[in-house]
Structure formats: C-alpha cells, structure tokens
Specification:
Number of domains: 3
Radius of gyration: 20 Å
CATH architecture of the largest domain: 2-Layer Sandwich
Number of strands: 15
Number of helices: 13
CATH topology of the largest domain: D-amino Acid Aminotransferase, Chain A, domain 1
Strand order of the largest sheet: 6-15-14-11-12-13
Shape: globular
CATH superfamily of the largest domain: ATP-grasp fold, B domain
Strand content: 15-25%
Length: about 350
C-alpha cells in the first residue's frame, strides 16, 4: 500500500463516532498510515495507531486524543507542507466532511483524496437537491414536502392525514440521525417543538413506502461501475433502522446477500449504479431503496458510507470476495488519477 497516505477521520458532524469506527478498520487495512483526527472544535491532532485501535465503545463514546493539536483548522491542515504529495483517505462522514466543503479544500490546494468531487458531494449530501436532480432519470421516489418554519404543525398534519405514515428527515445528514417516524397525529406537537428548536438543520417530510429495505454499494474500477451484493435491512418488533439499529444491533438484522430473487437483485443493483452515474459520483457510494409492490423506490445515496467492520459496504465487499485493503487500493488509484487530470 502507498506510504504517502493520511487517514483523516472525526469531524464536526454528529456522525463523528461512526467516523472513528471507520478509521479503526481503515487504519488496519492501510497498514498504519499517518492518522489525523479532526476534532469537533476544528483542531487537527496526530494520533497513534495503537491509541485509535484501542478505543472502545466506539459508537457511543467520544474519541479524545492524548496528543496536542498540530493544526488549528482543517484548512490549515490541507494546505500545509505536511500534506504535500500525500493522499487523503477520507474516513469522515457527514457535515463539512461529506457535503463538498472538505473536498473543495482538497481541490483548491491540489491534494489527492478519496471519494466523489466537491460538486457531486454537495449535490448528493442534500437530499432535496438529490431528488430534484434525479427526477428526470425515471427513478421512483416517495412524495415529500419541504417544511417551512412557522408552518410545521399544519403542514405535517395534512401530510400525515394524506399518507398515514411519514418520516421527518434533515435535508442534509446521515446515519439516520435526526429522523423521526410518525404514524399518530398525537406525536406531532412534540416533534414540531424539537425540530423548531434545531437551528442547524432544515427538514422535510416524506411518505413511508412499505416494502423491503435494500441497500447496495457501488464501486468503480478500471472505468467500470459495478454494484456490490445487495443487503436487506430487516426490522424487528416495531423497531426502526435508526442509529441504534444500524450500529448497536438493536431491533434490526442485516442480511448480505439479501434473500431475494435474482430479478430483484439485478433491478436493485441497476438502480444503485444508475443513481451513482446520474449523480456523477466517483470511487464508491451506497444507495438505499425500498422494494415495494409498485417497484423500487429510491431513498438516498451516501457518498462516504461507513467503512467500519459493522458497516454495510464492508459486509458487501466480503460477500464479493474483495478485502477492504483491495478496495482501498482502487480508491487510492482513482484519487491519484483525478489529481493528474
């Protein structure tokens, strides 16, 4: 593996715990690369490999480095001489690590990095921008409404009456954080109060589509875009596929490969590839969808999906007989080639 690698993880988003879990798996696959932790306050810390690997309860406990910061901001870190001729493997998720901000910095200072470019990252991170972009690509998507401050209760009351079961989502975000499932009008006042007090996020509501929840990773290699095996998310006992379901195995099961027909498998993989290509993504992505009696409904695409051992893409890579190290070698090559264009 290339020795000029900086594994960047952490960040200021609510998904930073997932990022640390991804970094643990990535660091081992990369063979002890240079490790930079991006703290919620914005500082960049050098991290020892052993310190990262020994961090426990990773999905619930904040990672606090023992070292002193070497940069006061991510911008300082990206443009520093220490990052010159290095390749950034992005182990970050959410926020300015995934919404195109970090990617734009790398492009400004001509640093190679894994994942999609700034423009595509920005587009895919905003769920409403994604839906708008895909509306001309013959892709089924659930009805939705954009929530307007001061009108939340009336809007949600009418939307719930029309569709019986809805989900309220942040416009930007991942790991199912900030999502609320609603079936009962009585639950709306408390939810409206909560989202009204959230000054960081904008929200929208979407009809819940009944069916089987599927998710498929997509990788690029040798100018080909290939779908990985399909995973089905099975929810138990009225649980939802929220943060605890994803990472703490509470109330959900993840079946890879999914126990579905070959026809449905091909259709789901075709939709994942179509979304990746339509959104002009690079390297890899993961697309979530619902298989309903009416067809496959697109939910969202993640440009930097989790890569922890518990995460979905590594599960799919294993079924496809590809190691995380082999996957990373492909991503690093793509990052180098993009910088040379």
């Amino acid at each position: 593996m290339d020795q000029n690698i900086i594994l960047l993880f952490g960040g200021e988003s609510d998904e930073r715990l997932v990022s640390v879990a991804s970094a643990q798996a990535l660091a081992q696959a990369l063979g002890e690369p240079t490790l930079w932790f991006w703290s919620p306050a914005g500082f960049i810390y050098p991290v020892d490999f052993t310190e990262l690997i020994n961090h426990k309860e990773v999905f619930t406990k904040e990672f606090i480095p023992k070292t002193q910061p070497i940069f006061s901001s991510i911008s300082d870190a990206i443009q520093s001489p220490e990052s010159l001729n290095k390749i950034f493997v992005l182990g970050v998720h959410g926020g300015t690590g995934e919404d195109g901000t970090l990617q734009a910095l790398c492009e400004k200072y001509k640093r190679a990095y894994t994942g999609s470019d700034a423009q595509s990252s920005q587009r895919a991170f905003n769920k409403l921008a994604t839906k708008s972009w895909l509306k001309d690509f013959n892709i089924l998507m659930a009805p939705h409404i954009i929530l307007e401050p001061g009108k939340y209760l009336n809007q949600l009351t009418e939307f719930l009456k029309e569709h019986q079961e809805i989900i309220i989502k942040p416009v930007s975000g991942g790991s199912s954080l900030g999502c609320s499932f609603v079936k009962n009008l009585d639950n709306l006042p408390a939810l409206v109060q909560a989202i009204s007090q959230d000054t960081k996020n904008k929200y929208f509501a979407e009809k819940i589509i009944s069916g089987r929840e599927l998710t498929i990773g997509v990788i690029e290699n040798a100018n080909a875009v290939t779908a990985l095996p399909v995973t089905e998310i099975i929810k138990h006992d009225n649980h939802n596929f929220d943060y605890e379901g994803k990472y703490l195995a509470r109330g959900t099961s993840e079946i890879t490969p999914a126990d579905i027909s070959e026809i449905l498998t091909r259709e789901a993989q075709r939709l994942a590839v179509a979304a990746h290509v339509a959104l002009k993504l690079e390297g890899y992505s993961r697309t979530d969808m619902i298989a309903s009696p009416e067809g496959l409904y697109y939910l969202e695409t993640n440009t930097l999906p989790g890569l922890a051992k518990e995460s979905l893409v590594p599960q799919q890579l294993a079924v496809a007989h590809m190691t995380l190290r082999e996957f990373l070698a492909i991503q690093i090559r793509i990052a180098k080639e993009r910088l040379q264009k």
